[in-house]
Design goal:
Elements lengths: L22 H11 L2 H10 L2 H10 L5 H11 L24
Helix pairs in contact: 1-3
Amino acid sequence: MPTFLEKFFWDVDPEAVDVDKNYFFVLERLLEEGDDAAIRWVMSYYSDGQRLEVVRNSRRLSRKTARLWQNYYGLGEEEVRCLSTSFRKTGNPYWTS
């Protein structure tokens, strides 16, 4: 993993992350948290197929991130798992009526 990406993996040992074997985890993290340099690296390092797999199947992408990549790839809402009704987060779970 390039050293400029290590800051996005604050909760794990970046040196232990294999960017090829753990591509799903790395892509989820960088698509969600990455800056411009990280996204440029993602676009040059990983294939469209790998990126599409993550966008379609991730449960961890925010709606905002999922929408961005849905639009980028021209996907239907039903093709993006985290946009389905069962994965939508609604309201604040700490508020009481």
